[in-house]
Design brief:
Number of helices: 20
Oligomer: single chain
Strand content: 5-15%
Largest sheet: 8 strands, mixed
Number of strands: 12
Strand order of the largest sheet: 1-2-6-8-9-10-11-12
Bound molecules: iron/sulfur cluster
Length: 435
């Protein structure tokens, strides 16, 4: 009998070597002298400050605080979170040790969290206009105990000059009025709450992204945040593998319109990029030459796993060139676009000039030149990649519903992961996506 969602099973399987390694490291860390464990955690934080400190500029800073990890990604020793997310697999030992430290001595854990901020940013920090402080799920008190609110955000504590806006990330289900009011006492009135919505299509969000978040939870969270007087950012993704270009574009555009209708203040859009233990990486490594999926245009050799540059352009273009009341709210991610650019660069090397022009236009747009994208639409017909893109679209025309392409790709995933039991698992998945 299968009870779990197909995608949760897939993610458990993809993460299973990491889950095992985590358990070994955690058990070892529980045997350390407490002071050695604490020193090891602090050394890890000192060694790699850039891991806890993404970037800083006068306009925008992002600081990652050391933490025990996302409770949606890791339950006990088992990893199986959102299918496109991997913040942890490359540092399992560090994650296991900080979890062991928290389980053994909460005060030392809280000191390590504070230390990660000071180690990255120093003391008496002059805040950027927007200061993002993140633990990925900031309202999860298990990861970020409430009494740290005052230590980080309290007046005269870490910041000599407070930013115009503080920004933090959380999952919609964590948002309650009580929590926000408690936090507001320390953080103040000018706050942006950022939430990973990924897509407005609830079925896709939960049965393919494994997000575990309903549209109702998102609607409620937006309302609570706005009622408290804060601003809301919704993060959307472009290009989950397993979808046709048409479905990537239409679901993205419907998602933007839905978030705008909820009153979200800003929508930050990110192309999917490859990360080790993710579904997109599995596509890239295991399915890129799959004959069936190639015939349907659902994988594209070396391009597999990240969205085609034209698809990203076509998804975003209508919003970025729309009237100011819309274009001012839809932004290409300043963090993910440069990563996408560096990861796909080689794939578009045969027309490097067009690639550079497109990416440069995004950068200019993000830096405030709202006309920078106006000339780009013509590139969809004029580059070396135009013919192959049209060919891809033609192959995908055999698919009309999202559920069809998901079923096809789930079958191919299932055959690789469970050669002797894939059929019943995929039947189960088909029921999930047709209810
Ligand atoms: S995307 Fe966010 S909620 Fe999902 S596993 Fe990653 S950190 Fe957790």
């Amino acid at each position: 009998m299968i009870h779990k969602m197909f995608i949760t099973d897939v993610m458990e399987k993809l993460w299973s070597p990491i889950s095992e390694q985590y358990k070994i490291e955690y058990d070892k860390a529980m045997e350390f002298e407490l002071s050695s464990l604490n020193n090891s955690v602090l050394d890890e934080i000192k060694k790699i400050p850039e891991k806890f400190y993404f970037f800083a500029s006068p306009q925008l800073s992002a600081t990652m605080l050391a933490n025990i990890g996302c409770s949606h990604q890791k339950k006990g020793h088992q990893f199986a979170g959102c299918s496109m997310c991997d913040y942890y697999s490359t540092n399992i030992k560090g994650l296991a040790q900080i979890n062991a430290l928290k389980d053994r001595d909460l005060d030392l854990y809280k000191k390590a969290v504070m230390f990660s901020f000071e180690n990255s940013r120093g003391n008496n920090v002059v805040g950027s206009q927007i200061e993002t402080v993140t633990t990925y799920n900031f309202l999860d008190e298990d990861s970020f105990p409430e009494d740290l609110y005052g230590d980080i955000f309290g007046k005269g504590k870490l910041y000599s000059r407070r930013p115009i806006y503080f920004k933090f990330e959380t999952r919609p289900a964590m948002v309650t009025k009580e929590k926000l009011l408690k936090l507001k006492k320390h953080i103040g009135n000018r706050v942006i709450v950022s939430m990973g919505i990924e897509t407005g299509n609830e079925q896709l969000r939960n049965h393919w992204f494994n997000k575990g978040t309903t549209n109702q939870q998102i609607t409620d969270a937006v309302k609570i945040i706005k009622d408290v007087g804060w601003r809301v950012t919704g993060n959307l993704l472009i290009g989950m593998p397993g979808l046709t270009e048409h479905h990537i574009i239409t679901t993205f555009q419907e998602s933007v319109n839905w978030l705008l209708s909820l009153g979200v203040d800003e929508i930050v859009c990110s192309p999917i990029v490859l990360k080790p233990c993710t579904l997109q990486n599995f596509f890239n490594k295991q399915l890129s030459d799959n004959v069936l999926l190639t015939n349907y245009g659902l994988v594209q050799g070396k391009h597999t796993g990240m969205p085609h540059i034209f698809t990203v352009l076509r998804a975003l273009y209508p919003f970025l060139t729309a009237a100011p009341e819309i274009s001012s709210k839809v932004a290409p991610s300043a963090f993910h676009f440069p990563i996408y650019e560096s990861m796909v660069k080689n794939e578009y090397a045969d027309d490097a000039e067009a690639f550079t022009t497109i990416m440069h236009a995004y950068e200019q747009y993000r830096n405030g030149d709202k006309n920078a994208l106006l000339l780009l639409e013509k590139y969809a017909d004029e580059t070396n990649w135009s013919d192959s893109y049209q060919c891809l679209l033609a192959k995908q025309q055999k698919i009309t519903e999202i559920s069809e392409s998901l079923y096809l790709t789930a079958s191919e995933i299932g055959k690789i992961l469970w050669s002797d039991s894939w059929e019943k698992r995929v039947d189960h998945f088909q029921k999930e996506i047709t209810v």
